[in-house]
Amino acid sequence: MKAALPTGADKQTAVRHMFDAIAERYELVNGIVAMGLDTGWRRRCIEALDLPPGSLVLDVACGTGDLCRGLARAGYQRVGVDLSPGMLSHARTTAPLVLGDALHAPFRPDCFDGVVSGFALRNVVDLASLFSELARLTRPGGRISLLDLGAPEAPLLRAGHRIWCDYGVPLVGSVLSDGAAYRYLPRSLAYLPPAAEMAHLLELAGFQAVQHAPLSGGISQLYIATRGARSGPS
C-alpha cells in the first residue's frame, strides 16, 4: 500500500527537501519525462498573460528559472520566488530571485502586473491561501497564468499516461536523479481539485474571467484569470 501523501507543515518540509535534492538535474529530467512537451506548455502559459511589454511579472515557485527566461524573451520584467534554496542555487536566469514561501510572499500589495507559475499548484500547502496571496500581489486588471499537470480524459491516452507516470517517470528519475522524488511527483496530482473547483477558488479570491485550458489532450492544464477590482482595503 502506498503511503499517504503529506499535508500541512509536513508537506511543506517534504516538498522543500525533495526539490533541493533534485535541483541539479531538474531541467534535464523534466524535459525527458515530459517528452519535450513542457517547452510548448510554458510558452502557452506566458502568451496567455497578454500584458504590455515591460510589465512586471512574478514567477511563483520559479525553480531553476525556465519561466523567468521565457518571460524575458517575451519582453517582461520578472521576479522569481521559490521555497527551495537548492533550486535557486541552480537557477539560470538574470531575474531577481527571492527565497520565500509563496503563501506569504515578501512583496507589497498590487506590485505585479501579472503572475505565472509552472507545475507548482499541487506542491503548495493550501490552494485557497495561495490564490488569496496572488490576488493581494496582483494589481486590479492584472493577469495570472498558472500551469500544472493533469490527467487526460480520452481513455487510451489516459491509460498510456498512467503507465508512463507509474513506471516510466520513476525509472527515468531513478537513473538520472532521485527515484523517490519521481515516484512522488506523479502521485502529487491527487492534490489538485477538479477544474470547476479550482475556478471557484480563484473567483473567491477575487479573480474574474477564469479560463481552464487543457493542453496536449489534458496532460497539462492552464488556468488564466484577471484580477478584479478591490472591494476594500488590501
Short description:
With 234 residues, the chain is α/β, with parallel strands linked by helices. It has helices at 8-22, 26-33, 37-47, 66-73, 85-89, 127-137, 155-176, 179-187, 195-205; strands at residues 56-60, 77-82, 97-99, 112-118, 138-149, 207-215, 220-227. The protein contains 9 helices and 7 strands, in the order αααβαβαββαβαααββ.
Total number of beta strands: 7
H/I helix tally: 9
Instruction: Tell me the number of structural domains.
Output: 1
Which class best fits the helix and strand makeup?
alpha/beta
Strand order of the largest sheet: 3-2-1-4-5-7-6
Helicity level: 40-55%
CATH class: Alpha Beta
What can you see in these coordinates?
The protein is built from 9 helices and 7 strands; from the N terminus they run αααβαβαββαβαααββ. The chain has 234 residues and is an alpha/beta fold. The protein has one domain: Vaccinia Virus protein VP39 (Rossmann fold, 3-Layer(aba) Sandwich), CATH 3.40.50. A 7-stranded mixed beta sheet has the order 3-2-1-4-5-7-6, sandwiched between helices. Strand 6 and strand 7 form a beta hairpin. Helix 6 packs across helix 9. The chain is globular. The mean pLDDT is 95.
Key features?
single chain; 234 residues; alpha/beta; Rossmann fold; seven-stranded mixed β-sheet; 9 helices; 7 strands
Topology of helices and strands:
Blueprint lengths: L7 H15 L3 H8 L3 H11 L8 E5 L5 H8 L3 E6 L2 H5 L7 E3 L12 E7 L8 H11 E12 L5 H22 L2 H9 L7 H11 L1 E9 L4 E8 L7
Parallel strand pairs: 1-2, 1-4, 2-3, 4-5
Antiparallel strand pairs: 5-7, 6-7
